[in-house]
Amino acid sequence: MIEVKGLSKSFKLTKEAKKQLKSEQQDPRQEGDFFHALTRVDFACKPGQVLGLLGPNGAGKTTTLRILASSIRPDRGEILVNNVNIVKNPEQAKKKIGFLSTNTGLYQRLTAKENIEYFAKLHGMSSKQISERAPVLYEELGITEFLHRRAETLSTGMKQKVSIARAVVHQPDVLVLDEPTTGLDIMATETVLSFIENQKAKGTPIIFSTHHLEEVTMLADEIVVINHGKSCFRGTEESLKQQMGVSSFRKAFMHLVNKPKKEEAI
Ligand SMILES: Nc1ncnc2c1ncn2[C@@H]1O[C@H](COP(=O)(O)OP(=O)(O)OP(=O)(O)O)[C@@H](O)[C@H]1O
After folding, report:
1. ipTM of the predicted structure?
2. Cα–Cα 20 to 30 A to 112, which of 30, 143, 150, 178?
3. Can you tell me where the transmembrane regions are (predicted)?
4. For atom 18 of ligand 1, which residue has the closest CA?
């Protein structure tokens, strides 16, 4: 179980960023030298639940997920994983959260196997634990046939599989996936989606962000919509449609974020 309560995060803007923001349409989240990327984000995800994080560009999804992965610290708020506040305990966070982002790097000169083993060791796993765990992942993700190839020679889809293995090798309590299918073809997307389904079946809470509403329909038990740095909806797709008084998920989402002209943006 993961509970996120009252997260907020502001970034200090560089001179260049301030100049750029001035030239763009004014974002009310900018205040002097600061940009209030998150002002209040709350949600929870139970064991075996898949939570889809949705929001327009710049809403605050990646910032939220980076905080969950303890890549950055929030200014305020709590994140409880099975009642342990991981904001106060970032070392625990790394153990408890498996994080996959579009920037999840692999060491290009290492093979797929070496990469996975390297990250397993960083998580403090023993050789025995790695030799038991890693082959299960190779099988589950279809990595076996390119295990000994260097990361630099792998296709985008193959790299994504290795990145997933890297993110879950230490069997984290919670999975956090930032746009896990972005840039992948249909086959690689299918691997990621069925991996999410498998993890769900094992009872892992999973939080993923996406711009694809159909992925949310397919996978998510509940949705959290973030808009302008706030979680503005939590519930099922059906309840969002009901609340917005429309029968289409896309329209309901667009009504909620109030940007009907930019339907194609999500
Ligand atoms: N280090 C930073 N300094 C200043 N502003 C930042 C920083 N990181 C993020 N932001 C701003 O915070 C806002 C939220 O960014 P974030 O990346 O979380 O959005 P997102 O919902 O993931 O968007 P997208 O769907 O486009 O990936 C954006 O306006 C972004 O420009």
Report:
1. 0.96
2. 178
3. none
4. 60
